[in-house]
Write a structure and sequence with these properties.
179 residues; mainly alpha; 82% helix
C-alpha cells in the first residue's frame, strides 16, 4: 500500500520540480523502489512486535512512530548523501545525472514521510490486537539463520583461509590482466 502512495507523491513532486520521465529518472525510481519499502516495513514490524507484547493498536502505532522516526530519517539522509557526488558534480555528466540524485532524494524522503505518518495510521486501523504472550518474543527460523550465517562464515579459522585464498586469487587475476 505504501509503494503506490510513495510513487504517486514522487511523480507529483517530479512534476512540480520539472523533472520529466526519461531514462535517468526511471533508473532512479528503480533504485529507490528497492529502498523505499524498508521504512514502512520497519514501522509495521515494530507495531506487530508491540501488539504481541500487549500494547493496544493506538499505543503500538504511536510507539512505532516515536521510536523509529529519527533512526529511519538518519538512514534515509545517509542514503541520499551517497548520491550527492552524482547530483552536484561539476561536469557534463553531473548535469545530466542530477535527475538521478533528485528523484532518489524525493522518493526516499517521501517514503520516510509515508512510513511515519500513513503506516502508523493504517496499522491502527487494520492490525488486530493480540493478547500479550507469556513467552518472550522468539525469532523466526529465517531470522535465526540470517544471524547465524555470518557467525559461521567469519569463524576465526575460516576467515584466515578464505581471506588468503581471496588475496591470492585477486593478485593472480591482476597480474595476468595487467601484465
Amino acid at each position: 500500500m505504501c509503494i503506490p502512495l510513495v510513487l504517486a507523491i514522487t511523480f507529483v513532486a517530479m512534476r512540480i520540480e520539472g523533472i520529466s520521465l526519461q531514462r535517468i529518472s526511471l533508473g532512479a525510481l528503480v533504485i529507490a523502489l528497492g529502498l523505499l519499502v524498508d521504512d514502512a516495513m520497519i514501522a509495521v514490524e515494530m507495531m506487530i512486535r508491540k501488539l504481541e507484547e500487549g500494547f493496544d493498536r493506538f499505543r503500538a502505532a504511536t510507539f512505532a512512530y516515536t521510536s523509529t522516526a529519527f533512526p529511519m530519517l538518519t538512514g534515509t539522509l545517509v542514503t541520499v548523501a551517497g548520491f550527492l557526488p552524482v547530483g552536484f558534480a561539476k561536469s557534463g555528466a553531473g548535469e545530466y545525472c542530477f535527475t538521478l540524485f533528485a528523484v532518489v532524494a524525493i522518493a526516499l524522503l517521501v517514503s520516510w514521510l509515508v512510513a511515519i505518518v500513513f503506516i502508523p495510521y493504517l496499522g491502527d486501523l487494520l492490525l488486530k490486537e493480540r493478547p500479550a504472550q507469556e513467552a518472550p518474543h522468539q525469532e523466526s527460523r529465517m531470522t535465526a539463520r540470517t544471524v547465524e550465517a555470518p557467525r559461521k562464515l567469519f569463524d576465526g579459522t575460516k576467515v584466515g583461509i578464505y581471506g588468503s585464498l581471496g588475496v591470492i586469487t585477486t593478485l593472480e587475476f591482476l597480474q595476468h590482466h595487467f601484465s
